[in-house]
Amino acid sequence: MPINKEFKPKIVAFCCNWCSYAGADLAGSSRLAYPADVKIIKVPCSCRVNPMFILRAFEKGADGVIMCGCHPGDCHYSTGNYYARRRMTLLFSMLDYMGVENGRTRVEWVSAAEGVKFSTTMNEFVEKIYSLGENVRLGDLRCKK
Amino acid sequence: MQKIVERAKELLADGTVNRVLGWKKGDMCFNPEPAFFETAEDLDENFVYGGFCGANLSKYMIDASKLEGKTLVLLKPCDTYSFNQLINEHRVDREKAYIIGVGCKGKLNIETIKQSGVKGILNITENGDMLNIETLYGNTEMKYSDALLERCHVCKGKEHKIYDELIGESQDTSDRERFAEVEKIEKMSPEEKFAFFQKELSKCIRCNACRNVCPACSCRKCVFDSTKFDSSQKANTDSFEEKMFHIIRAFHVAGRCTDCGECSRVCPQGIPLHLFNRKFIKDINEFYGEYQAGADVDAKGPLTEYTFGDCEPSIVKERG
Amino acid sequence: MSTVNKAELIKEISGVNPLKCMKCGKCSASCPSFNEMDIKPHQFVSYVVNGDIEALVNSASLTKCLSCFACIERCPRDVKPAKLIDAARQLVIRQKGETMLSPNEIPELLDPETPQQLLVSAFRRYRR
Amino acid sequence: MQRIGVFVCHCGSNIAATVDVKKVVEMVKTEPGVIHAEDYQYMCSEAGQAKIIEAVKEHKLNGLVVCSCSPRMHEATFRKCAERAGINPYMVEIANIREHCSWIHKDMDEATEKAVILARAAIAKVNLNAPLQAGESGVVKRALVIGGGIAGIQTALDIADAGFPVDIVEKEPSIGGRMSQLDKTFPTLDCSACILTPKMVEAAAHPNITIHTYSEVENVSGFVGNFTVEIRKKARSIDMDKCTGCGLCQEKCPMKKTPSEFNRGLGNRSAIYTPFAQAIPNVPVIDRNACLKFKTGKCGICSTVCAAGAIDYTQVDTMVTEKYGAIVVATGFDMIKLDKYDEYAYSQSKDVITSLELERVMNAAGPTKGHLERLSDGKAPKEIVFIQCVGSRCADGRGKGYCSKICCMYTAKHAMLIRDKYPDVNVTVFYIDVRTPGKNFDEFYRRAVENYGVNYVKGQVGKVIPQPDGKLLVQGVDLIDNKQILKEADMVVLAAAIEPNPDVRKIATMLTASIDNDNFLTEAHAKLRPVESPTAGIFLSGVCQGPKDIPETVAQAGAAAVKAIGLLAKDKLMTNPCTAKSDELLCNGCSKCANVCPYGAISYEVKEINDHGIRETRRVAQVNNALCQGCGACTVACPSGAMDLQGFSNRQIIAEVDAICR
Q1: Which of C81, D139, D596, D638 has the fewest CB atoms within 10 Å of its CB?
Q2: Among B201, B240, B303, which would you mutate to test the A interface (most chain A Cβ atoms within 10 Å of its Cβ)?
């Protein structure tokens, strides 16, 4: 895949405190590299992620947004990720409906034990964003022109 | 209409209700507006009920619930879904409402009439299945069923979901597939989809009419007016903001929207806003089972519920 | 080709990570041709790790392995010695610049001692 | 605007080797709100903390950003440090520039740039932080122990001895667990029952201990210090107060062909039964699936013979609801199923058995009365082969990836006991490694080899082939000799891997305790908090946390008890201040938040609100801070944004998003 050297994507990853943030920590302590384009924001639970945050990230120029939470059934708060799953399904469906490439959004369930999964997920996601290129559809078009 | 006025007067006179929530004549025949009536004289003089009385009055009951005594409210079949949803959300007080379910044979869209080429409209009268239209340039006529609002083509049925008494006959005017328009967009390529919505949404002037008329969008203070999200209301400064506003607006009413179509009816720019709400309704039906907001007063709502086996968000990708 | 490259090639062809081996010997314990082999199945791994591909390629084990896959089936670490020996065979085939054997050449080459299963297995694996 | 100090840690070379910390300090100095920035070798050290405190005093800081390791590591340290410096501990944010940056990136420029952005996000957040005060909640002075094996019994005894009431919930009809099935214990070879039964009796007699056997935890609600647990006491069909434990009913029961769970299915029991003779309580249960009375309505012999009139066929399950301050999980383990290991012929031959089955065979109260014999024909074996690591250390998806830890030692024990009692029996052990870390463990293993002549072969078994004459042909390898071995054996014993009790996942879900992919409960910190679950108030005892032998289990059980006692000894707990908070002026009263709250922490109140001069009676949401755990589900369900989460507010998260996307 040809990689545009100029393009440095901005990628926001929302990670729940209990599983995915710990999974990211594990990826770190296992030295499992993934591109520096990914920046993690810690939230207590995936159910804390408001669609507003995701749209805000796109508005401010993010090229991809990924949300990670505990696996369904393993939520620290028992049910949070079930609500998050419905919310994100509907939001992503809407973005797709509006013509936003559906590769720019992703939800992945990563447990605290899955450092490897965290790292591979991020690598895949970044690669996907590189292949999609800069987010021209959602960003602040008028300011950039 | 006369029957409604007579009954309203009786209920006012015997003290059952303190006021009547209905429609009053507008400056033109095609723009009656919601109004409270407190006297028999006011009713006789200003009350109107006809094909152009599309406004859904249930939202006004939020304020009316805070007033002294009961309010007589006139609800069309589809309006009763909104009223139920408001009861579900503790926004209206059932005890404060006396509901007369009024008959409806579909409501008219003046824009449709104008778009058919009729200009200089002076008056429109209903005559059975036909509309007699007086214009500056002479008289013409049009089939009633050709001038219906979009929502009436996908009518939810003639049954009132909640009422104290019924006056008048209703009919089911549905003659189109409810999700046909949504499906059409879903089949487009991402570029076409984007172009379609970009074109529609760039018309938005953020007048907030869609929000203010929506019976589900009834927050005391909208998030776009508050400081809670650093998104306080202002004109759109970038091309994304209108999208964000409309996505969030639709998301906030997802699972609560009864598909009453008021947003599209009132939009001064003619943006088909119901396409957002209906997309969420379609997804909810497909992913989590058929759900009609307002059909059941005690329903929990699809976004505050879950099942262990819900589909994953990646379904959006897999579905293509 | 250097020995390092050959070892890498074997890993690539086989898709096996020999470092996963915990040296339990279950492969050799399962092997029906164990006694015929000069390099035993559990040793394949260390030959690849140490880069001694020449010895592996020239060993009798190359022809004695039946490709019965018992070691693949039972390996607890997913190391799959038979895949390594198979990769060594591929290496030989590729070196000779041939990728296939015509069925007509077989009767001539046939050694009556060759086990039937090896033949069947070879056809299964190398026909194109 | 806050007055923020930024402190960048080198973490020795962990961070400084890949992140230019000096540059990070320079870059963040111009961020809004930043008054002071510095770097130091080890921020978490006493000297590093002293620097922070000094800077707070000198620059009158009221917010701190520490760029260091994961907040999961040292957030608490720096919050305490802030407190010592006289500022609110919740005015501290951590930028994780080690796990999320220096450790995963190699390029220095790239890593430095990312570190700066992460620091900016943390600074943006602190700019919107508000001081938070932890609330207080009470502690119910009672503990629950789930599981009545040696781990549960030991934990319960220790807590009870400290003066707190404890309830044990055990799903089997008797306490005792796995240890009660064992014959002898390593490395001293004392009889398992001889050391376990006194503890069982002690637990039963302890005034502070209540034992619920034949019971299961059905539902758990509440939080640390104040759990409410529903326990289902399954219908025993026996009146526990009346039963004298005479055993006549079991003797007379006509349904004696039910496989005994206690004997691992190698022997039979009656339909009315106690699992074993020393069962506690010594009150039988009726297995309703096996009982003739329940199946056909005809029988009732037990009722006829019971002089005490204790048999009650009409009993139904009863629910007990009790409040607890602490819960200890001690659910133990079982052997894995061997259906994926066809090569060992476990399902084909009765003479291929697991080690736990061998324990029953060797036990005087077991199916063979302690005589070592082949289960197929009752003949005395002459050749026995032990196979190690069956399903342990497997990366192929058939077994478990971990080492089961106890197998090396118990196999040495079995081999030694057999050679001691039956010197004419040859014993061969196929091993991959012999792992004997533990006091007197290696000496024990060497004794088996040197004094008892057990034949240890380095290598694995590839296949066990049952022969027509009933013998078992074992095909293995000796890796030292580089020879394949074909050996005829009379018995093969498999050291099957152990796995956590399958019920534990259900229990973990109820407790909201985290659990790993192998179904072991996760500890709060692998090294420093090994007996606590990350979920406050939940403690881990025994094998539910990881494979352990008996001495380790007992040690951990004691440690879990001490942690639980430490909690129960407190009168008040500080609650998490990062709870949801509703803005009454914005609240619609729509109940969406209450619908999604997993803790029932949101209630509604109808009260008079003064909304900018308009006085109105409104229905508004109220959050109970003691119940709220701060997940934030309500904040997204709330359409008006009235519900917000303290410490993770909408504006804070948006500020972070903005800082990252800048």
Answers
A1: D139
A2: B240
Of D590, D611, D651, nearest to B228 by CB-CB distance is: D651
Nearest-angstrom CA–CA distance, A120 and A113: 14
Question: Domain check: are D56 and D116 in the same one?
Answer: yes
Distance of alpha carbon C66 from alpha carbon C89, whole angstroms: 12
| Same domain for B95 and B52 | yes
In a domain, A145, yes or no: no
Query: The whole model's pTM is what?
Result: 0.66
Q: Which chains touch A (3 or more CB pairs under 8 A)?
A: B, D
Query: How does pLDDT run across D430-473, given as a tens digit for each residue?
Result: 999 999 999 999 999 999 999 999 999 999 999 999 999 999 99
- Per the structure, how many domains does chain A have? 1
Please write the tens of the pLDDT for every residue from C20-79. 999 999 999 999 999 999 999 999 999 999 988 889 988 999 888 988 889 998 999 988
Enumerate residues 117 to 136 of chain D having a beta carbon within 8 A of any beta carbon in chain C: none
Range of the domain at D292: 248-305
Q: Is B127 within the bounds of a domain?
A: no
Among candidate residues B238, B246, B244, B239, the one with its CA nearest the CA of residue B195: B239
Residue B247 touches partner A, C-beta closer than 8 Å: yes
CA B252 to chain D, closest CA, distance in angstroms equals 5
Using a CB-CB cut-off of 8 Å, the residues of chain B touching A58 are 240
Size of interface A-D (CB pairs under 8 A): 149
Beta-carbon separation of A52 and D650 below 8 A: yes
What residues contact B113, with CB distance under 8 A and at least 6 apart? B30, B121, B124, B131, B133, B142, B147
Q: Given a cut of 60, is residue C128 above it in pLDDT?
A: no
C80: distance to nearest CA of chain D, Å?
10
Q: Is the pLDDT of residue D238 over 50?
A: yes
Is ipTM beyond 0.95?
A: no
Three-state SS annotation for D144-161: EEECCCHHHHHHHHHHHH
Q: Looking up tokens 């008289």, which residue turns up?
A: B139
- The answer to whether D395 contacts C77, with C-beta atoms less than 8 Å apart, is yes
The token duo for D415 is 């081999």
Q: Which domain holds residue B69?
A: 1-109+148-176
Separation between Cα atoms, residue B29 and residue D438, nearest integer Å: 95
Q: Are residues D620 and D557 in the same domain?
A: no
Residues B181 and B165 in one domain: no
Q: What is the CATH number of the domain that holds A63?
A: 3.40.50.960
* D45 at interface of B, judged by CB pairs closer than 8 A: no
D368 in a structural domain: yes
Residue of chain B with shortest Cα separation from D596: B304
> Which residue in chain B is spatially nearest to D658 when comparing CA positions?
B230
Q: How far is D545 from chain A (nearest CA, A)?
A: 14
| Residue D658 maps to a domain | no
Chains that touch C (3 or more CB pairs under 8 A): D
Of D39, D50, D46, D53, the residue nearest D6 (C-alpha): D39
Give the number of domains in chain D.
Answer: 5
